Amino acid sequence: MAIAVAAAVHVETRKTVPVFILGDSTADVGTNNHLPGSNARADFHPNGIDFPYGRATGRFSNGFNSADFLAKLLGFKRSPPPFLSFNTSSALVKHSLRGINFASGGSGLLGVTGQSMRRVRNVVTLSEQVKQFLTVHKTLKLVLGQEYAKSFLSKSLFFISIGSNDIFGYFQSKSTISKADFIYSLGCAYETHLKNLYKLGARKFGIISIPPIGCCPSQRVFNETGGCVEELNDLAKAFHSELTAILKKLNTQPGYEGFIYSLGNAYDMTMDVILNPAPFKFKDVQTACCGGGRFNGEAICDPKASLCSKRQQYLFWDRFHPTKAASKLAAATLFGGGSRYVSPINFAQLAQA
Description:
Blueprint: H1 2-13, E1 19-23, H2 66-73, H3 89-96, E2 99-101, H4 126-144, H5 146-155, E3 157-161, H6 164-173, H7 179-199, E4 204-208, H8 217-220, H9 230-252, E5 260-264, H10 266-275, E6 284-288, E7 290-291, E8 306-307, E9 314-316, H11 324-336, E10 342-343, H12 347-352
Parallel strand pairs: 1-2, 1-3, 3-4, 4-5, 6-9
Antiparallel strand pairs: 5-10, 7-8
Helix pairs in contact: 2-11, 4-5, 6-9, 7-9
GO molecular function, one term: hydrolase activity, acting on ester bonds
Organism: Punica granatum
Protein name: GDSL esterase/lipase At5g55050-like
């Protein structure tokens, strides 16, 4: 009882809204550091070269990523820490009251995405991330009591950024499944994950759709002209339409009262920068700052990689991921942008809803 009262007082006096983050490498802040068998890691230099003290934290970035900047806009110092970093029950309780990051580089909406044939834990799938949140849900009920925990979670924010790896996997496998059927299967998986989170008390969802992944340096290398791979971009656009329909349905579906969402159109946000970079203060929107080969997109960003000097002028940090500057712009747009980029409300309005 004393623990519950102390925790309740802590929650009431906090000024920031609790944040729970799920997804892939676009939001991972070190989850995969705790997976010894994973190849999807960034806990080595020059990753983190612009992070405080130049630390390679496991973020796929030269500094903060979008999860960090969104958290900062909500009053945090940076993103909440990864769930797998908690090694005591007291740490779990503390961060369950503030927010936790579950995102894992390489993961996807489908359970097979990012998994290798080896018997190692390569990524934390989104299904596993939801199960991890179940542990948080149980902790909150124990500490706060069932009714207060329900109220607490209804006011919390759930940010999700995922889906690119599923599309990459489908495209590279040359699957015989039709594009329409594949996108539908992704939508069904997303809907299931959202419903499972809703059952655990989540009500306010900030969803980030898939950017024009065909324009990543890693994909430009396969285009003789150096242009984007339009087939990948078409899949990203189709997924955005599917996701829009799912969110609208859940928003009005009986049994999901209180379901509120904000959908960030990462495709248009990014493509507008690629097509007209100057107003956004970018000078290179094709080449990775860190890597090797054509467009710096043929080799990973590691200590042997070629590294640009003016990182704030680059859209891409490595073969797949945005720079700190690009992530900051994305978070600001999601937080305060208009309906072209984020709808039906932006993330700031979601936090206040």
